[in-house]
Amino acid sequence: MELEELRQVEKVDCKHYLIIDARFTWWDCGRSYLCRIVDMLHMGYVDEVLVGTEVLERMPSLANEWVGLLKARDAAKK
Asked: Strand 17-20 vs strand 48-51: parallel, antiparallel, or unpaired?
């Protein structure tokens, strides 16, 4: 699998984030998908699910994590 190879060879751990917006779409029309989202989390296909305004709260800290990981990876290469 390409992601496993990326993790082993390049030492890059690719994260998958599912961003869900539109309360009406997901809570009123898409309830059947909620169990699929839970399954994706349980099976490891998705690392984190961000819902609605949580994106605004969580995204800055995620970006800081990404920057930190990039800096650590660059420092390890030197």
From this structure: parallel
Taking phi over 0 as left and psi of -120 to 50 as alpha, with beta for the rest, 44 belongs to: left
Is residue 5 included in any domain, yes or no?
no
Total number of domains constituting the chain: 1
* pLDDT tens profile 2-60: 878 888 888 788 888 988 877 776 777 777 778 888 888 998 889 998 888 888 999 99
Q: Domain containing 63: what range?
A: 15-77
CA dihedral 77, 1, 33, 61 (to 10 degrees): 0
